[in-house]
Amino acid sequence: MADFAMEARGPRPRSRISPRSIMIYGTLVLVAIYYLIPLYVMVVTSLKGLPEIRLGNIFSPPVEATFEPWVKAWSQACTGLNCDGLQRGFWNSVRITVPSVIISILIASINGYALANWRFKGAEAFFAVLMIGAFIPYQVMIYPMVILLRELGIYGGLTGLVLVHTVFGMPILTLLFRNYFSTLPEELFKAARVDGTGFWGIYFRIMLPSSLPIIVVAVILQVTGIWNDFLFGVVFTRPEYYPMTVQLNNIVNTTTGVREYNVNMAATILTGLVPLLIYFVSGRLFVRGIAAGAVKG
Amino acid sequence: MTKRLLLGATAAICFAGGAYATEIEVTHWWTSGGEAAAVAEFAKAFDATGNKWVDGAIAGSGGTARPVMISRITGGDPMGATQFNHGQQAQELVEAGLMRSLEDVAKADGWRDIVHPASILKSCEIDGQIYCVPVNIHSQLWLWLSNAAYEKAGVPVPKDWNEFVAAAPKLREAGIQPLVIGQQPWQASLVLQNVIAAIAGPEVYGKVFNEKNIEAVASPEMEKAFAALETARELATGSNVQEWNQATTMVINGTAGGQIMGDWAQGEFAIADKVAGKDYTCLPGLGLAEIVSTGGDAFYFPKVDDPAITKAQEDLARVMISPEAQVAFNLKKGSMPVRGDVDLATANDCMRKGLDILAKGTVIQGLDQALSADAGTQLADMMVQYFNQPDMSIDDVKKGLVDILQFDS
Amino acid sequence: MAKTSASGRPSRLFRNLNAKIAAIPMILTACVVFVGFSAWTILHSFTKSRLLPKLDFVGTAQYERLWASDKWLISIQNLVLFGICMLVFSFVIGFLLACLLDQKIRFEGMFRTILLYPFALSFVVTGVIWQWILNPDFGVQSIIRGMGWESFTFDPLNNGRIVMFGVVIAALWQGTGFVMVLLLAGLRGIDDEIWKASRVDGIPAWKTYLLVIVPMLRPVFVTTLVIVTAGIVKVYDLVVAQTGGGPGISSEVPAKYVYDQMFLNQNLGQGFAASTMMLLTVAIIIIPWAYLEFGGRKRG
What we know:
Chain C: It is found in: Cell membrane. By secondary structure, chain B is of the alpha/beta class.
């Protein structure tokens, strides 16, 4: 019976094997293959030697698998004179991503809370501006941002970069939190108000603890976005803070010399590993989190 | 802060030995194997002066590295030295007072006497002051041919553009792409530059690009160049590679007859263990004219307050132009040195040809130096359209060229 | 603005004050970054700034040049085409997939992860990998020709007329999974009673989806629409990595035009003019919508 309670999502399949379920699974399997082909090509290519890549087609499995490209990408590929591969940027990426994700989510959740529960006049206008901001190409913002950071005296360091990520992550995150908090039962909020709990009290004691599902979503979005960011990382910091994507760019975008496609692919997979891992681990929570935002309590 | 204190302390200690160990960050976009090896020569020579080279390499010249460099300089956190295209592109940074004049060093060391050809140092000069160190000369005016492709087609390897055109049908018959041009805009404008310099001649080239003389565009010499351009488009039909080195790879493995490309293509042949004269042939000025162009790279030095870094900047500038570093760097880079008084004993055939022409002095300015970045990019956009849209006529190119020259004058 | 309205009632002022303090980062971001920077950009679009921003006014010259530029006009056409394709296909496919996954199937987690993983990769990676797969000499075309169908031609990246579809294929691969997950989450929020009721009434499933479920999913659709559209307008990395704007200039997009003008042409004024046009277009679309969506709607 427990099964039954979980069940009635869509119209229920009557039996396990029916033309209908064959169609469903068939479609899904075909789609899954289409989605997996690029990953397959990446992995296969990263395991081939260069001569084999030049001769063979991109879909054929490696004749002689080699892990050399992976080792090279991680610890030997050169960025100018520094030949220590991607590992150089890995910790920088962590150092950038962790504070940026935490601070941007904290601020966006407070925004969303203020917007959803304490609507003060004018708030929605600022929010609308924020939403329009989500559509501005980042490149345009580079110069004024450089000027702002310079005037604030935080250009070139981690603080400045964290600020940039917080600012540009704000529109979408605020939208998510605002929508989520609007769907929480209002009684919760009202009861706390009656008890005399203040703005921050309600936020920390009631709202924040109950927003775990949407926080998961926000973390996933932000980790992906910030980890994959190249432009801000390189424009707003010094080389000592350059994230992993800078090394990836240097490996992949070098225009002269032999293109080591296998190393490129290995480097690409290695760089994408952290966000990929987060997706694999928290895929279920991700759906649940978004679903929670849409469920009326 | 502690770092600076530490640096100060180190400097104080080293003072007894007469040398300051100053760290200086150098940004550049040389990240490929050969390029990085060349930069390493500079770093080694610089470190030998008792300073320390901190490498800031960012791949991708215009689109990626340039915004980084400009942001760093205008953001008030400049690097010690940076690669930049010389010519007109850095002028504004200089005018804004963000870059440092090297006039003292240049005067003291007599750069105006040692740099050859003189035009290359001229590109560093703004209002009579020298602001950059030219480090090499790259000529864009080469036609690279695959000997294997011509052997397969059963025709002798062409000795100039006319033979190249005549041999093309045979190559087509043998299933070989006669001329390969990458799809990137700058490669298309390189072809235009080559046909004008080689077929219309250096004099007309100068009139068109340096003097921006509109009448010269309509001259009979230019008509010939435009005709050659039309031929080039025909010969390139069917080539669909993106990047220049993919195109070079086709010449290396004989699937294409030839490519018009700068002398940096040589690095690709070298890495593939191909020998000039035996596996491939290089023709300067399309084999029709003995000319080289003086594109090249240069380093600029942002203004900084720290006297230790100012001193290190001078050291670096001196190192870069020194005969030893020039030889070591350019051999690895595959380019020509900026001074005529050094000997590249180990240079290969193609480079020798280039050096000889350079010594004789038939030198034209590269498009980078002759045009503003804006006009240069517009030209490249137009040319890549021309090569990709069969319905675009040569008259459109003429008209577009006139517009761009007027825009830039 | 908020202050004046609340000034009549001290207790409300106090209450709002806390919320206002909390919203300071948002207000600062909205005013300084999005409004302030935009104003800065618009102001400089009337100048002839080249490498460095300078207040050297030239009137509307930058705009005249912009609208006379083939590259810009092609960029706009491409963006419209790309945008329509992306919106239609990512929503249709995303919704269909979400419905399939919502049929209480086995291995749902596996399928979902497979469909979603491309979203974790950067656009640069997506561009490079699809450039390979669509390369006529060693990708799909050569494989199918190798299987015996000699005349098969599929080379979007080398054909200026269809190159944008090549970009769309890659963008869909990366983005559809995310749309699917958002919509799936929405479907999970639909009350079981709805399904029971529609079954009792004997309404066919497809009709229930179209007439009952889709309207109920409106908030999810709106959130998804905002995220997807913001991505479409900003599309840049993917094009650069996959086609470089080529062949020729047939796959140029506005964001790339802006960037190229700023950093390749070193003509900031022109780049700012182009981005002002983008901003204006976005504002014209968003402001009425935002007004309807957020303005005056009461909670609950």
